[in-house]
Amino acid sequence: MTYLSMLWPAIMSEKTLQVDVLVIGAGPAGLAAAIKLRQRGVKQVVVLDREECAGGVPRHCGHPPFGMREFHRVLTGPQYANRLVERASLAGVKVLTRHSVTRLLEGGELQVATPEGILKVVAKRVLIATGVRETPRSARLVTGARPLGITTTGALQSMHYLKGLAPCKRPVVVGTELVAFSSLMTAFSAGVKPVAMIEKGARITARHPCELLPWFKRVPVLLNTELESILGIESVEGVKVRDAHTGKSRVIECDGVIFTGQFTPEATLGRMSHLVVDPDTAGLQVDQFGRCSDPAYFAAGNILRPVETAGWSYREGTSVGGWIADDLERTQSIVSHQEVQLRCEHPVKFVVPQRLLLNRSCGFKYIQLRVARAVKGELAVASETGIIWRKKLSALPERRVLIPLAGIDCAKDSKVLRVYIIE
Amino acid sequence: MTTDNSSAHVRDVFDIAIIGGGVVGCALARKFILEGAKVILLEKGADILSGASKANSAILHTGFDAPLGSLELECMQAGYKEYLQIFKDFDLPLLKTNAHVVAWNDEQMVRLPDIEKQAHQNHVDNVHIIDSKELFKREPCLTRSALGAVSIPGEFVIDPWSSPLAYITQAVLNGAQVRFNYAVSSGKFDGDGWLLKSMSGEEVAAKYVMNCAGLYGDQLDEALLGRSEFSIKPRKGQFVVYDKAASALLKSIILPVPTQRTKGVVLTRTIFGNLLLGPTAQEQDDRGLAGVSYDELELLKAQAEAMVPGLKNMPITATYAGLRPASESKEYRVFEYKHKHWITVGGIRSTGLTAALGLANYIFKKYSKMSGDLAPLTSIITPKMPHLAEHEQRDWMHAGYEEIVCHCEMVTKREIDAAFSSVIPPNELSGLKRRTRATMGRCQSFYCSARLAQITKGRFVHDLSVDVMASDHE
Fold first, then answer.
1. N or C end of chain A, less CB within 10 A?
2. Domain housing B440
């Protein structure tokens, strides 16, 4: 009937595809999970990706370093992506591109748009690994008209590395997260010359030695500088920036604005379905096995939180893939086990996971969290009866902070654990 | 115009030149073509809907709150009726939402009966007051502080861009001409007709002129007639578009009890499946620049979250601003200059999307009294518009679409190709967005701008990509 039925006559019936595990998203997390599942002996593992090529975001990140842990060498993003796809294919994973999942239904039933028509997929388990994207100008509510030349790192990278194009010649780069420096590298590679990098905080967000890059390339980094508005009607003509200390505004001439970072999980499928979305991460809410509110669904990678490296996402995918395999082998559901909610309090920005099944020692080794501002003090976890874990903490925004789950021991009747900071 | 008949080159003389390709100009072009006139539409932008018509709240109004006896009310109700008669022929969408004018305090509560009464006077008969219990039953996500509401079952949501595009497409299919990048700069009237001249010196001859120049209507009157009986006071409106997930929070259009100055901030579903919030109302002198501002958007958001708390966790997809061509008086400004063969259709405010078809009929009647002998078309071509509405069958649901280019809005390559080969193809990104929804989604082109830049290279007035390598040699 269709090309799919030729692929697997046995499991294809009347535009319905039945599989053991369906993975949505062929990036590092999704492919890693699929590989693990195959290694664990799961038969039908299918990865769907809406793009033309598998590999995920590293595909358009044409510079190193990728793959040190996974492949023990320094690779560029596209090389890394190719290796992942190769490894998955060798493991017996079926990757189908240009397949857009459009709807998630209870219990693991999905609607998928394909150029050959709509397909129904029924899977015993589904892994959602749809990654993150940067917050565009609109969602940042930036003042100004809508001229051409406003973009994000991701768009800049795919334009340059995939299509050999560039959106502007002399942009201002907004933000100093790690990805902002990736933006700079992409710009240099494309022959684009950023006129400045601006950061509203008092220091560069990314770790040392990132700050050496703009210095080396003579791109001024303007700290304590807030973007006030974008100038220009048809095309960008400049940006107005405000000095946080003096309150004074000035204009920087440029023909583009690249918004970097402020990542947000691409959780649309979850948001439009019955799955619970965590308001703090804006990603899918999960337990320590990466399991969503519907036990047929799991999530791994940057869909869980903004934002981690490709390597971290790969390892997370591998872990969750393993737990899905465990779950398929299990004859009794573990969902009925007692659950405790994890809640964070400002300035803790989010925690992952948000639910813990008690008396299960395996699963994620850590609670991951981020802080909303620079903090110095103690990080604490408290149950209804009082603090059950505490440790000194000095942390900056966007930096990885971990609480070992082995150290969390709460009473059986706990319902909620609070994660907060004592300053 | 007779001068040219003697020359070797015989100039086309149009019956009607319409200046301005907004929703009003498009509707007029359609009407005059269907009535058998020879029509040309002149638009100074690169596409239709380049001015005021590109940004509005996309509501098909019943006219329940329009001033009794006003031209605005008459045209809105006629336009409303005609839209419901024709939308299916064009495959245009309609979302039957209902609207609620919600009272949030006692002061507003006491004004509800007046709103109901006015609606009945305007012959919108099914309007009625409901109590808070009924309101929360209909709209369970509204803040519990709402006291009651006026229900207006006939208020609907439409596609603000496909509708005017349908009107002008039909006009062109039946013989109308459209010229873009044609800014009328001067003109001469010789007693029989007009010879219009553009900035670049291009001439167009027409017996009658319809000034539908929107934000520039008064300036056009001044430039060509030597006077204007009204003056445009652009009023900026800012909007916030929430993610599609937010549309589950609301079933109807939530209207505020209006104040003297403005109809206030509306929260409505859109035909594309989003939730729309706005507009603000700020007067400004600039007729071209419509930018958003952070402070105003934050205020808007706070207002919306006070009405629907669930919006607090909802991502924002887009923000935009539009200019309404308001004038010094709160009414439509239609002026007829019989001896000059000129009709000015000015001051068409936010209700223009609904009123356009009605206005077209009204203006045609005026014209008929001045000049009679047109024979209506007997066989009419009606175009089918692309399906962009979220609640209808989209293109991606049908096999053979090649690829999805914009994933957030599920825009296919086939749809983009179709837009480029349509009767009025887009000349710029904004035109492609309005015709296909590409880049209008939550990622705002994070994922698709590269592919889109590649597909559209060389087809727009301004390319989406720049030639970086060339710049090295500048």
1. C
2. 395-464
